[in-house]
Fold each of these.
Amino acid sequence: MILDKNWRILTVGDGDLSFSYSLAKYLKPIHLTASIYDSESALKHKYQDNAFDKLANIGIDIITEFDVTKASCWHRLSKQSFDAVIFQFPLIPAFASYESFQQQTLSVNTLNRQLLRRFLLNATKYALDPAGVNLGIITSKDVKPYIEWNIEQSLITNTDLCYLGQSTFDISQFPEYLIRNVDRDKHVKDTSGVSYYWSINHSHPITSKLQMPHYLAPNHCTICRAGPFVSEVDALSHQESKKHKSMQKHEDQWQLYLQQHK
């Protein structure tokens, strides 16, 4: 993960705050603000082992009940005062009941894309300094269902944001970081992760340090991460596959959502 101690960093949705604590302890950025979706009491009830008090004791600002989808929460920050805003392993919470799931008109895939798109748009509008480093960073797992979100391309349709590239996420950079289950006090297996970077600066200097995945090249299917196709017949055969049709369904649902929420 490419970070710099000279950056002003905001973390969002940092479940037990162990990522923010590792940043504070080992990277030591010039400024760090940490935020969580839960209240302090809910956090401590959900995660018996948490870093809330350790962060508070070293003077790190902690914002509780911070919902990245709501402008009112972003208004609680000093406007456009950060260089990087980081969302680690985001995932929508489980539905409270089967009835609430049945009442939801959007697919789970679309709901997760919606969460990430709103995060990037709100971070850019309210938190990132346009004259600063200006990076929105999302780290996500490189397995299903996360790779089915088309995270590189789908989130920034009809925006000024540019996808800059990605880097491998190595958890050993953050010795006291514990990846958590979004809903309960359980550690999640440290599966391979990727950190993705966006900015309004389309010629951002950090691109020289990032990788662009092979499946974004011509003669590939971006949504399936498949290819290269050696011929038109090869590409058409892929488009008729069960995997592609399933992924195309996700894309069609997402495009419909975007059309309805311009």
Note: The helical segments are 18-27, 40-46, 52-57, 71-74, 98-103, 108-127, 232-239, 242-260.
Amino acid sequence: MSSVFQDDVIAFADDYVMGLMSPTEAELFEALIAADPALAAHVARLREQLLPLDLSAEALALPPGFAARLQDIIARTPQDAAPTTPLSADPTVAPVAANLPRAPMRWLAGLAASLVLGLVLGFGGAMQRPAPAPQVVAVLLDDQGQPRAIIEDYGDDTAQIRFVSDVDVPQGFSIQAWTLPSREMGPQSLGVLDGPRATTLASPDLPVPADAQLYEITLEPEGGSPTGRPTGPIIAKGLAAAQNI
């Protein structure tokens, strides 16, 4: 599968998860999800990434008359209009809606047909190979209940951490990630982080992660805890949720 085709599918996944598709477009995209396990796994990861935003966002009332104005705009906007201007290689020609790669529903229908054809012919390539899926996911909250980070543990001695809000790390200190497989084993380090940024963690000889397993990040002296156990203040912590895979 070409990289252009794959990029288009990924772009549509973003729109699908954020609810930006029309009902017909969503139905077509759900057909793609049902036909491709890797795409289904990607959509699931996008939903997990948006979870902290859902948890932290405050509900706001829509302004008066919003629904009526939106319905009027939808009624006056062609949903799948034919191009009003021939496609042109001239960069001075302004693109119309039908020229924009993510605008019309026919683009999505074409992608669906192409993917189904690729699956039938066995040319799905990377999109047919299921991406690794985490065995557990933990949303780490601070003492105010605000999401700070997400940890995905794959059960193969690796995990990934992504931060969803800023974390202040004073000079001379480091962030360290931990998990508590059991009280008998005690806290185990997942690794020292190079600042509050997305990181792949590697920690050999850890047991298979389990549902409700504790994960946390602490502030430690630069380079990590000198004792092999958490010594600094807890920045955020949370219990893992099994992904039923």
Note: The two ends are 26 Å apart (CA to CA).
Amino acid sequence: MAVLKWDHLVHYVNDLDQPVQLFAEHGLTAFRGGSHKDWGTYNALSYFGLTYLEFLGIENLELARSTKHNVVVRDAVTVLPEHEVLSRVVLRTDDIEAVEATLRKAGLLLSPVIDGRRLDDQGRLIEWRMMTIDGDFQGLPYPFIIQWNERDEQRLASLNSAGINRPHPAGQVEVVSAGFRVSDPAAAASHWSELFGLPVSAPADGSDGSYSLKAGDQTFEFVQGEENRLSRIVFRTDSPQLKGQTLTVGEGEYVFE
């Protein structure tokens, strides 16, 4: 199977400016990303190298409601405005057709591979290919799959030169892990490991019942809880301003260690 890495995450919000302002107050760079004109959504972004945060809101409710083959937009319509939750992680590949074939063989309900695009605030057209996975495992939504039109090294260089991957005034910050609170951590970790080829990097020793999967340079942590969803993102930082802080956006936590 093609190698999958953690690309970004989606966090549903009602007001894009709220996380942008909150991050700015703590020395973190976040900014309006642009509009998905085909889907009725828009976003704000915060980059940490190739792994980034996407705060996603509804710009055109009628269009969002009519969008097909995109469970991310469908779920935004379902949960907003009541629940500003962390939605799901996104896995990056350089061979989306190979991933599609593997997941179909596993019996998952997939969207077609669709073309995504948005105009950023400078009017630049950003394009990608993506595939969403319907359903869930014991209530936990599946990731979706994305393929960019550049390989990782080229894309990072492009993001840097365009000023999209910007330094954070607070200092060095990197994404370490995504935390999922699930009813059965062992089963969830095993299921994702088999589907997406993510190796178990730290099997539980029985002390706390948690399981970890390696996803590129970061990990996915599955811990006991009844929410069955993504709940927190952990960062490593050298910033005295950030270290020990937890920033809360809606029902999601951003923890700095």
Note: The two ends are 34 Å apart (CA to CA).
Amino acid sequence: MKKLLYPIVIGLLAVVLTACGSNDEADKKNDEKETKTTEEKETAKATEEQQKKMEEMQKELDKQKVDEKKTVAIVNDEKISGAEYNTVLSTTQMQMQQFGQDPTSKEGAKQIKEQTLNSLVGQTLLLQAADKKGYTATKAEIEKQLAEIKDQYESEEKFKEAMKQAGLNSEMLNTQIAENIPYTKYVEKEIKVDEATDEEIQKYYDQVAEQAKTSGQPVQKLEEMKPQIKEQLEQQKKQEKLVKHVEELQKNAKVDIKI
């Protein structure tokens, strides 16, 4: 059994740089050189400084990576490689940045390492459980999911660009899909949760409505938000139950962390 050690990458974090233009003065025919305004110079300088900071940050983040061939953990005699660790590490680093935290700090680096290892071990245990239960993926299911992923991009070129930035190739993506399907089937069929009750939905709505009023935002009617709230509450329940399920699997598992 191969391992799904990180979620399928179907999104792309794109940085768009907008170039500023300058206008030529009609009454200066002899002046062929374009001049930048003070504002343009300041914008260019700020962009350059921002780019430099991003490059320095990336260098610090890269220091947290491990040798791709190194075994970072063994879960029930199944090895997790450094390459797999580095992929999840990058995702975890990005998530921490999105929450306004510094992934390069000593505490941040420690938290990222623990979270990455926990994620890898948990997913491996779930995949092993799915394999034991006999969940599989058919060729048709793999092709359908691949098509759905590609449909999210404007063109084949955009899709390939996203793949490149995510550090994936066609073989890796197909492997992930083939492993993600039985994983998803297992979670859907084995991790059952109760439907969100009207009381739970009302309580959640009241909290959202209060927050909206406090911030001066318009409040939608309960009827409009009910389907969304119901889905969110049930997903939250499933996630909580999934965490507990992994903890139970881990009690009977042999997990050896190597880093």
Note: Residues 222-251 form the longest helix (30 residues).
